[in-house]
Design brief:
The complex is a heterodimer of chains A (80) and B (653). Chain A has 80 residues and is mainly alpha-helical. Chain A contains six helices and no strands. In chain A, helix 1 (6-13) runs antiparallel to helix 6 (71-78) and helix 5 packs antiparallel against helix 6. The relative contact order of chain A is 0.19. Chain B has 28 helices and 17 strands. Chain B is an alpha+beta fold and 653 residues long. Chain B is globular and about 60 Å long. In chain B, strand 4 (77-82) and strand 5 form a beta hairpin. Chain B has a six-stranded mixed β-sheet. Chain B has a six-stranded mixed β-sheet with strand order 8-7-12-9-10-11, sandwiched between helices. Chain B is 41% helix and 12% strand. The chains are: A mainly alpha (80), B alpha+beta (653). The A-B interface holds A 16-20, 22, 38-39, 41-48, 67-71, 74 and B 472, 475-481, 489-494, 497-498, 501, 524, 541-542, 545-546, 549, 602, 605-606, 623. The complex binds iron/sulfur cluster. Residues 73, 95, 237, 286-287, 290, 292-295, 512, 514 of chain B line the site of iron/sulfur cluster. Iron/sulfur cluster (SF4) binds next to loops of chain B.
């Protein structure tokens, strides 16, 4: 099931500083709690991708694309 | 105990007492070492309104738990104080070998307080610590004092922290040196040390650093040293030194020329690292356990200054008394560097204050009547050279400039127009890199830096600076490769937040930032690995970065207690309003300005700074275990936004 709506994914991918809004959206979607939100703010994007993969919210292929292509690939995966 | 020595020295020069204080597990775990422990002491023990030259003021020398081990470049030491230049929180760090030696002598930190009745130096020989007469050393250059102390103590191998005449004369930007040429340049602690009648701290240590999990630790070190072999930044820094940046800076328009009026100059190549290596490079030298070895030594071979010899140059030391004041003759630049080192002054502020005075002179705000007859025209090396000595000795117009550019503007009664040309924030002139070219995240560091305007190394946004050498790294950490472009606002808020916390930890571990998150051979996860292996702890990457965040917030709170916050989070008008002019063919940033206001609100969100005051929020402070700091700031939030405060123009504190 998609974690983000298409509209949300589009909004995020158009932002200049997307990371906090992405963490906020994941919290709103119940994927992250307060502690998780804070953890990935402190440790960076790749740790977030690792988490989403271990939680099976994205596939190995998606994780690879998210690390190679960045957050636009990630939000696309999370909304499909 | 592993990693740490578990004790610090407190030397009271008024009372002549030396106390060894234990450092608890909780304290070490919370503040780690170096910058962290020093900042904690400055926050708790130096009231924000205390005169930095008051005997009650503290100056701290801190090293970290991995200092003195085989971890890459682990020999640095952080020097911290209430800055006499800015009036706010101040620190800087230096390489060399003194930091490692302090660990071998058995100490994680030294706090010096009080004022000796006559000049003294401290001699630490393992457990034996004494305060010795230094009257015969007063007035000596660092290299002279270093040699005399070694001779007196009969040991060539000891390591010595020392100040020069500028520190003794309370020049507000005097530096602190160790191993003669390794300088902790910024914020003026050399003058605080001088105000205590302290000339030097000599150390000899015969101990070791105990490592909790040696095999794991050496595996990490070996892994990292292998990475350095092919690291692209290491290659530049070793072969050409930090002056490898000159030609890049000139091409991308971020070299400070004539007080930042320009970002490039056709003659800049003459002082490039490539030219230096071909002409006057005497030899290279690295700091303790350094796999990069960027240090150089210079011997001037011809012209007026032939025969002069000294450590350096570094980019940040050479540009201010070179292009920033319009001087492009490389031998003159090397000479100015040797001179400022001899006197023991921060090269950045020295050049910054002279460049500012040159612009005041150009704009007619001062005349030769104010300067004692000196013609402060761009590129007038004779005057630059004279002024360096006059500043250090506080003679004539030099005495005015010895207070730093911002205070000098007030001493001369130049008003807002004078401050407009100081190119400083929170009372300290900025280093020689123009954010209109070097990068917008880098420039944000000038606005929010917790040691005043110059946070070029303390919140170094290297992901934009050297990120291009490591394709994919910005994506890995920030989720986006676009922030690698210097002149974009994209992703810069998060970049600053991440790198600032990271650098705070670099400065707690007291490793060289050139080895980590400048060159990217050592990443955060690697630091956590060697920290845990040395100390026997098992902290997570999240906890590690949170400690960095705690330190940044504590330092920020020091400024908040001085009622310095959001309104002061700015950068000089020049960068915001004057489009970068074209000075050389192919310059990449012609026409750029730096829209700092576009980035700050996003950065504040990551920090959870109060949007009205810019102070750290109560919520975040409590989360970081700084409940008492939250209490300190509570009554100040409304005060900061009172009408009377809003009217005040604060250039320093
Ligand atoms: S990179 Fe340079 S400044 Fe840093 S530790 Fe090595 S020699 Fe010293």
């Amino acid at each position: 099931m998609a974690v983000l709506t298409k509209a949300e994914a589009k909004r995020l991918s158009e932002l200049d500083d997307f990371y906090m809004p992405l963490l906020d959206s994941l919290k709103k979607a119940g994927v992250l709690d307060d502690a998780g939100h804070r953890r990935y703010m402190l440790t960076g994007y790749y740790r977030l991708v690792e988490y989403l993969y271990t939680k099976k919210l994205i596939s190995a292929k998606d994780a690879e694309a998210a690390l190679a292509e960045g957050f636009t690939a990630l939000v696309a995966s999370l909304s499909s | 105990m592993y990693g740490w020595c578990g004790q610090r020295l407190r030397v009271d020069l008024s009372k002549g007492t030396i106390i060894k204080e234990p450092l608890s597990y909780e304290y070490r775990r919370k503040w780690i070492g170096g910058r962290g422990m020093n900042s904690e002491v400055i926050y708790r023990e130096v009231p924000p309104n205390l005169d930095p030259f008051d005997p009650d003021a503290r100056v701290c020398f801190g090293v970290g738990p991995i200092s003195g081990t085989a971890a890459p470049a682990s020999g640095r030491v952080t020097v911290s104080c209430k800055s006499p230049l800015t009036g706010g929180f101040g620190d800087s760090n230096m390489g060399g070998h003194w930091g490692a030696e302090l660990k071998y002598a058995g100490y994680d930190q030294i706090i010096v307080q009080g004022r000796a009745p006559k000049p003294v130096y401290i001699w630490i020989d393992d457990d034996n610590v004494e305060i010795r007469d230094a009257r015969h050393l007063w007035g000596k250059f660092p290299r002279e004092a270093d040699a005399m102390i070694k001779q007196e103590l009969g040991d060539e191998d000891i390591h010595i922290v020392v100040i020069g005449p500028a520190g003794e004369n309370l020049v507000r930007f005097a530096s602190t040196f160790n191993d003669v040429y390794r300088a902790a340049g910024r914020t003026g602690h050399g003058a605080v040390i001088g105000s205590k009648n302290l000339k030097a701290i000599a150390v000899r240590g015969s101990g070791t650093v105990k490592i909790a999990r040696p095999k794991e630790f050496f595996d990490v070190c070996n892994r990292l040293r292998q990475k350095f072999k092919t690291d692209p930044m290491r290659k530049f820094l070793y072969e050409i030194g930090s002056l490898s940046l000159i030609n890049v800076a000139n091409h991308d328009g971020w070299l400070s020329v004539n007080n930042f009026k320009q970002g490039a100059h056709p003659e800049a190549w003459r002082m490039s690292g490539e030219e230096h290596s071909k002409t006057v490079l005497k030899h290279r030298e690295g700091c303790f356990a350094c796999p990069i070895c960027c240090g150089r030594f210079t011997e001037i071979k011809e012209g007026k200054y032939a025969g002069e010899y000294g450590g350096g140059p570094e980019y940040e030391h050479s540009v201010p008394t070179g292009p920033r004041v319009g001087v492009f003759d490389p031998n003159a630049i090397w000479h100015n560097m040797i001179l400022t080192n001899n006197y023991g002054m921060d090269g950045i502020e020295t050049g910054g204050v002279i460049a500012t005075a040159m612009e005041w002179y150009e704009k007619g705000l001062i005349t030769s009547k104010d300067t004692g007859g000196l013609e402060l025209t761009w590129g007038n090396q004779e005057v630059v050279e004279k002024l360096i000595t006059m500043i250090a000795m506080r003679e004539g117009f030099g005495d005015v400039l010895a207070d730093g550019a911002s205070r000098a503007a007030d001493r001369l009664g130049l008003g807002d127009e004078g401050h407009k040309y100081t190119i400083a924030t929170r009372g300290m002139t900025l280093p020689g890199d123009d954010p209109r070219g070097l990068g917008f995240a880098y420039g944000v560091g000038f606005a929010i830096g917790t040691r005043g305007g110059c946070d070029h190394l303390r919140c170094l946004a290297s992901l934009e600076l050297s990120g291009f050498m490591y394709p994919g790294l910005n994506t890995k950490i920030l989720g986006d490769e676009r922030p690698v472009k210097p002149t974009t606002t994209v992703g810069k808020g998060y970049c600053c937040f991440y790198e600032e916390n990271q650098k705070a930890m670099v400065d707690c571990l007291n490793v060289c930032c050139f080895t980590t998150h400048w060159s990217y051979a050592v990443l955060t996860a690697d630091q956590v690995d060697y920290f845990n292996a040395v100390t026997g702890m098992d902290i997570t990457e999240e906890e590690f970065m949170e400690i960095g965040e705690r330190i940044v917030n504590l330092e920020r709170a020091y400024w908040a207690r001085l009622l310095s916050g959001k309104r002061e989070d700015t950068i000089p008008e020049r960068f915001q309003k004057e489009p970068m002019p074209k000075s050389v063919d192919g310059q990449t940033n012609v026409g750029y300005v730096f829209p700092v206001e576009k980035i700050l609100p996003g950065y504040y969100k990551y920090r959870d700074y109060d949007p009205d005051t810019g102070f750290p929020s109560e919520r975040r402070l409590k989360m970081l275990g700084l409940e008492d700091v939250a209490k300190d700031l509570a009554p100040l939030r409304a005060k900061y936004n009172s009408e009377s405060e809003k009217k005040k123009k604060k250039y320093y504190y």
